[in-house]
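Hey L., structure's done. Input below.
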Amino acid sequence: MTDKEIPSYILRTKLNRPQLTKDHLHRHRLLDRLERNLHRPLTLVSAPAGYGKSTLLSCWLESSDLPSGWVSLDENDNDLRVFLSYFLAAVRTQFPSVGNNTKALLTSSRLPPVSVLTDSLFDELDQIGSSFILVLDDYQTISDKTIHDLITKLLRHPPDPLHMVLSSRVDPPLPLVSFRAWGQMTELRVRDLRFSPEETGTFLKQLVGAPVDDTAAAILEQKTEGWVTGLRLAALSLQHRPELNHMIANLPAESRYVTDYLLAEVLSNQPEEKLEFLLATATLDRFCAPLCDAVCVQGSELWECKIGGEQFLKWLEKSDLFVVSLDEQGRWFRYHHLFQQLLQQRLKQRFDPDEISALQMRASRWFAENNLIDEALKYALAAGDVLAAAQLVEQNRHVPLNEDRWYILEKWLSQFPDDIVHQRPALLLAKAWVLNFQFALSAILPLLDATVTLLGEESKELIEGELDLFNGIFLFWEGQGERSLELLGRALKRIPAANIGIRNEAEIYFALSSQIAGQSKKTVQTYRRKFYNETSEGTRKMRLLGSLIFIHLLSGELVEADEATRQLKDMTSRIYNVHIETWASYLQGIIHYQWNNLEDASHHFSQAVKNRFALDAYSDIDSFTGLILCYQAMQQIDKAKQTMNRMIEFAQKTSNPDCLPRARSAQARLCLLQGDLESAVRWLETTDFSFDTGTMVFWLEVPRITQCRVLVARESEAGLAEATEKLREHMQFNQATHNTPQMIEILLLQTMACQKQGQTDEALTVLEHAVTLARSGGYIRPFVNLGKQMAELLTRLLQHGKAVDYIKRLLAAFDAYESVDDRDEPLSQSKQQPWIHNQALKNPLTNRELEILVFLGQGLQNKEIAARLFISPETVKKHASSIYSKLDSHNRQQAVAKAYQLGVLTPGQ
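Output:
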């Protein structure tokens, strides 16, 4: 993966292994041991700071034939999203196409459970064709239990290609005893990393540039206990005191004081201008020449540095001090961690806290000027300047939103106390946007009220566009289309073009609101023009297409929605975006379910359920519901029950309080379909429906409507009267919001309520209205779900000569449904379908196959048949293949001829 392919929020320097110094000592005994144990999935290198862990591993990777990745961890990585983002980025430096699905899960509105992330990561790592090494350096900085759980799960059943290396100052909280017992781990510890007397002599000779007496080397090895940092400090001391024996004689007797003594020796011999630079940069976790110049300004009253950053870095490299190069270009460096700690101690001894804070604020400003906001925020907070830190977030809050990384904004906000956030209007708005993308809309309104109060009327214009947008969103969900459209239009005029993230959100809601306001025609034209004028395929183009799909679905235009959704799916195959791809799968599931293409629908819903965390808190439950309804309709009862259990378990673990009630509603609906009226009634009598209000969009499961389903199925006089009144109210609301799919559902339930109250004529009138609405979109499943009584009513409507061709298709679907459902006796074929003849076939054609066969006989092509039957060309092709097989034919001409010969088709069909 090239630098351009690495996301902007990933610090490239953290993915680079430390560059080896010219005086590095190759420790062949340890390198051989590492190489011999590659068959084990884990290598643990555990020792205190200064024992050369990182250097040893970097040397190994440089000499190894295997591809490798590296992550230098720090305290900022104690977040599962951040940690895995770096984990994947390291893998992708060698295998750029690996990890797309896991990467996408990390950007979901709700982070999936560790088990889901582990399964996804395992599957993707396991597909890598060659073995590789991944080093997680400084793992001791990780304290997040979820990260430890993920690493544990990954190592219990490790992907074959992966060899993981953990470098840590302490043993990580992993089941090391088990790994050791199973022979899954190689360990290098202090006793292994200590320099032997021979290595000490060789190492000192390299550093000093002259032979070292064996006896002196052995004494020094004993004094430092083979600690490489102590040996390097000793060598640096010798640059100013060439007598090794004299230096050894002055070392403290106890090894714990050796470091302080040697460091004092090294620092006391540095030029004053260099020492000042060392201390000024001691707080920096990484530095480059321009940053050094920003922190240690020449000629300033504080830290009067007499040299520039470029000169300082050249001296630093040449002096062999404890500096680590972080990139091949030699631009970024860091101090060895232990040396940095020692410098920071000296810094605190010499300067007061305010002077140190001034250094950190200089660093913060430099990082901010270079758009490295995470680090800018870190140093501002370290300096104790909460006001500056808050201003950083306020000034940059749109950056993560523009990149679809709202969770970074959430992370920034989490670093402030609540009282700070609630005192600052821009931070309150930032929190509101986080809640919006978590679909926790009810929690936003108090934040907006507090924002307006803090700003006052005079300065409210600074954020009026965003306030209009939020209020427009609220009004949309309340079903107030015209008012919502007005506010959203005003928001789009006020929100700056640079704020792409929230403008995208505004455009989606503008499209939805234009539909429920009955003004979608102009919006469709405008969005189509924008779509075709958008030159690059990306998120914006896909969202414009998604907006058009939403309008078509709400209008009941399933054919148009299907075409646009297939186009969207095609775009995601070229530009991988799991969020939009999952939405496309969910929407395709809805379309094919309504068309009664149950196999296709179940496939699409399965894909949506698989990636459910990419959906919002309602559409994920709706995807489960669609899959359950498909399984039930296909009489795969066990699958329906298993999927229901998965949905309930999923809903119980989500943070959104509305998820579980919606899942329970879908469960009650399944009970109805399975004839368990008692359980459905129990749900009805124990549920508070106040959570379910406002716009119903195109959801398959709407608890208010399922409430009416149960009331109608119960068939009590009071229940039917209550259902009739509620359905009337729902119908008025959905007529006012131009919501065709929900109107069809409501009209069909009204039909059943009228019929059960003995109002057959009224039932047929209502049913005719439903048929009229459903016909252009080719809706089938809503009718079939209502069973035999609906089929009988449709047969009566057919006898009146109403929508003959369409009702015939509906009745054909009932016939197919009844043929696999033995709960009710099938209707007389002569009453339902006088146009379909008995078949002299061992394996008879289904009604759908007979329909397609008729069109084949008329010479229609697959696309033409698909358009007439409201199914996809792929589905036609699949059915045609089955027809050929059943008629023992190889093509359509042979099949049609055989059908006439056997009397399956008759002249005139």
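Residues 818-838 have pLDDT under 50 and may be disordered. Strands lie at 42-46, 68-72, 132-137, 162-168, 185-188, 323-325, 333-335.

-- N.
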